[in-house]
Amino acid sequence: MLVVVGSLWFLDATDVIDLRAAIVLPAVLAVIGLALIIGAFDGPHPGLVVAGVFLTLAVLAVAVAPPDALHGGIGERSIHVTDQASLAPTYDVGVGQLSLDLSDLELIESASVDITVGAGDVSLTLPPNVAVDINASAGAGRVDLLGEASEGLSVNRTYTSEDFDSADDTLTFDIDVAAGNIEVDQ
């Protein structure tokens, strides 16, 4: 089983095939279950049972996580953007912290930014005097939009500046954290 999983991983790493954990983990769990059924005639197999329990937990974690929850790598990212040419449309962190400081951003046209963190924290500092529309959600954690906070499971908060519809240049944010905290301030 380890040879097969290792071979599949190698083929995925070399871009020969495209595997997703949501497909591979349940398949490996099925193989372990089949081995337990066949091996039941020979006696107990505690090693397979333990492997099956841990694999079941991994399957559950993959099932509840967003598809690209770990996209973006691991670590802490601190980004300070001062001009719109440097503002990316997407910021991703798999596990860790993302600090995006737009306090000195000179906006020349409307922009939209998606921020995704699998497990960790997002800290966003907005530019002053710019109309914003924010949609923030955390699968489990805390969302604090400009001092208004909510926490728990499946937390969704939105904020729209009063002058958003009439402003010439606006910023739209879609912030998603699977497990962690979101803090937006100005």
Description:
The chain is 27% helix and 42% strand. Strand 4 and strand 5 form a beta hairpin. 19% of the residues are buried. It folds into two domains: 2-64, no CATH class; 74-185, no CATH class. A six-stranded mixed beta sheet has the order 1-2-3-6-4-5, with no helix packed on it. The mean pLDDT is 84. Helix 2 (21-39) runs antiparallel to helix 3. The protein is α/β, with parallel strands linked by helices. It has three helices and six strands.
| Rg estimate, integer Å | 22 Å
Give the DSSP E fraction (strand runs of 2 or more residues). 35-45%
| Protein structure class | alpha/beta
Please provide the count of β strands. Answer: 6
Which parts are unreliable, with pLDDT below 50 for 5 consecutive residues or more? Answer: none
Rounded to the nearest angstrom, the distance between the terminal CA atoms is 53 Å
Task: Give a short account of the largest sheet.
Answer: 6 strands, mixed
Number of helices: 3
Which descriptor suits the 3D outline? elongated
Order of helices and strands: HHHEEEEEE
Strand order of the largest sheet: 1-2-3-6-4-5
The figure for the number of domains is: 2
Helix content: 25-40%
Average pLDDT for all residues: 84
Nutshell version of this structure?
With 186 residues, the protein is α/β, with parallel strands linked by helices. It contains three helices and six strands, in the order αααββββββ. α2 runs antiparallel to α3 (46-64).
Q: Key terms for this structure?
A:
186 residues; alpha/beta; 2 domains; 6-stranded mixed sheet; 3 helices; 42% strand
